[in-house]
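Issue 218. Parser rejects a valid record. Input:
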Amino acid sequence: MTAWWIFSNDTVQTVEKGEQWENSIAVLPFKNISPDQEQEYFCDGMTEQIITSLSQLKHLKVIARTSVMRYKNSEETIPEIAAQLGVAHILEGSIRKAGQRIRVTAQLIQAEGGHHLWARDYNRQLKDIFDVQDDVAEAIATSIFSNLTVEEKNVIKTDRPSNTKTLELYWRGLSFWNTRLPQNLLIGLDYFQKAVDLDPEFALAYAGLADSYHLLASYGLDRPMNSFPRAKEAAIHAIELDENLAEAINSLAAIKLLYDWIWKEAEKGFIKALKINPSYVQAYTWYALYLSSHRRFNEAKSKLYQAIEIDPLSAMVQTDLAQVFYHEGNYEQAIKEYQKSLKLDSTYVYTYAYLGQSYAMHNMLDEAEKAFKYAVQLTEKKDPATLAGLAYVYARQKRTEMAMKIVRQLENIGDGFYVHPVYLAIIYTALGEQSEAFYWLEKGYEERSEWMIFLQVEHMLDPLRNDERFINLVNRMNFH
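Output the parser choked on:
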């Protein structure tokens, strides 16, 4: 029996105990009790590192970072948190960092009854932080699996940079990248770059660079032909440094999917990343993206259900699941899934944008307009994707002048933004101007826009689907 979230109005009920219940853990955010409150990133980095280490164990269910971070400063009890996340064990602790000294406390708690299995207290020099991480991860693993093998002890050891300054730069980069906010991506990228400048042998920082450059293109902050080659170079270098680094393997697979369009190599990469780290949520979501774009909808949903078990409170993962239903043409179910996502995070802008798509395709144009307007408002009228969605709805409503006003805005958008040509193709399709739509689709093909991978499943382009020009374009993408 698997673990499932059950949504009832705004309440999330607990999950049932499944087969993996006993071999499961949530590492709660370490509390920052340092004199300097800006050390929050250090505590979050420590939390993420222990999660990453434990995730290497193939028979241990480890709740992902996004979900556990929801319990930062939570007043809920350990049994309540464990029941909501579907785990048998909870790790909690605190960190005090002052100068070059750290004090780390950690307690492993059995969920049922709240019994402490062990507690550790480390007073160390900052340079010993790697040993502390390894000790905590091994102690947890040994408590859950009494017969831990030498190989398993080795795989959970920390990927160490040459110095703690590099680690701090990397953790600062992660703290910005994890927000997925466009304004924070460049800041995170800068920290990752400083980390590799300080330690050119630290593979994880190169993986961070790769993911940052990738998202610059995804969010329209740079042209694909500028950012993806940089992402690819960083990912390849990370793999050269560590051929078993799941983060880097997954990054390269995503680039092969979204930019190179080398489908089978991308799939092999995702599979390899998940084999190395079965709890790596990002590999599940990007693999599902590949599967959905290739109309393998049931497989895509299966991967995302697995991701939800590991990361049950992630609005992004839930939104990705809803998007598969959208690609499948099941708009009613997609709407329901998007609404679940909004209960997890009512501020996640892309849920509103994708919800607007499903409303529009379900001929609920008033609801679509409201969703897109709210998304535009959340992005302060600066995000090309949400603006394009609103223009699409205006076009469907025969409000041509308002749609064209946004088109002109997108065609002349200022520096610092890249408008994926598919956005304009979608608007012109709704306006009935097919020649213009094909002009922008061809431009998307030439510029290697990642949104071209959705040609087979983007229903806003359905009016073009039987046109020979569209069939030719799909054939050139060589999906099969």
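Fixed in the parser; the record now loads. The longest helix spans residues 224-241.
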